[in-house]
Amino acid sequence: MTAVLLLGFGLLLMAIGMPVAFAIGIAGFSYFLLPDTFLPTSIAVQRIVSSTQSFPLLAVPLFIFIGHLMNASGITPRLVHLSTLLAGWMSGGLAQASIVLSTLMGGVSGSAVADAAMQSRVLGKSMIKGGYSPGFTGAVLSVGGLITATIPPSIGLILYGYLGEVSIGRLFIAGLVPGFLLMVALMVTTYIVSKRRGYLPVRENLPTGSEVLKALRSSIWAILFPVWLLVGIRYGLFTPSEAGAFAVAYALFIGCVIHREMGIKEILNAMRASVRDIGMIMLIIMFSGIIGYVVSFERVPQTIAELTLGVFSSQITLLLTLAVLLIFLGMLLEATVVVMLLTPILVPVIKAAGVDPVHFGLLMMTLVTFGGMTPPVGISMYTVCGILRCSFYDYSRELLPFALAVFAVVLGIIFFPSVVLFLPNLLLG
Predict the structure, then answer these.
(1) pTM (whole model) above 0.85
(2) I need a labelling partner for 163 at 20 to 30 A (CA). Which of 70, 133, 208, 300 fits?
(3) Can you give the residue ranges of the TRAP C4-dicarboxylate transport system permease DctM subunit domain (predicted)?
């Protein structure tokens, strides 16, 4: 009970505007100051330090750095051209291209917010000038970033695997099919809305084979990036953490040698941006180590597992209930924060219920990331609306059909676990 109250205290501190890392740290440290705790405060300090002493955690700063390097290496404009070529012939051509681009960028940036911000700057103004409403433009560009939550290398999946002691390699491979299903669902929704409103294609005809091959050759290094990662992990060439180091070397080689568009200035800018992002995330991870210890010490996962197993008669009912909880929390907190706070609590619960943690990990990342695209505190929503100068009301109204498409995919993931699990089971056993 005490641990739950401390989590509530942390959420209250975030609600009044305190930085997330300090809100978590203060809430966790307060536990050791309670009169009936009888634990030395030195344990809290030890947990802060020990939470950083993890080899799998090396993947987080490396993949954040790779996202910034890829954007500076000349890959983005090539992927934009390929996406427009592949999807520009459909109704709502630019919107369709943005969704395909999100799928391709998912294997590059690893961040939904970064993907939405990049696309808003690259495609947003062109879409509005082409007759798309600002609300529709913002909704498409924001929710397209949801695909990034599942396509490897997703930063959220790395954190979930590290905190829940789940195979990151299996999570990476499991994310491919849900990512593809999200792309199809969003493209179908975009087509229906565009057809109804008269949003035109940007190409008159289907692309020819030679055009596609030419665009593929230009973008081949970006397209091969997630393939190298999955092949390397599958055949044991490197661990997910070592894959991050490989990815950094890969991006430097592409930008400096192949495309020759990245010099010392671009590398330094990518390093500065990465240091800001890494500092923020690592500070949260360090302080969340205190919360993790308190939650474990108070036996919160075991207590919740006993309660839920007694209340819920089936795995489906449990997952549907947790899905509602995750959407609600995702609407209030940044996805990374939700993952770091709840993974140590929920993974033991779903394991006790017989749910595969890889299956739950993809469900969790999809839902909490989507929460960041909805009112009232969605970071992706604020990012996109700020860049496009779109009203939150118009954005929220236009988001509704895309939300229905996302929920349809989520229900498919819940009711048919094999959608997520068959590929990692096939490749990794």
Answers:
(1) no
(2) 70
(3) 11-418
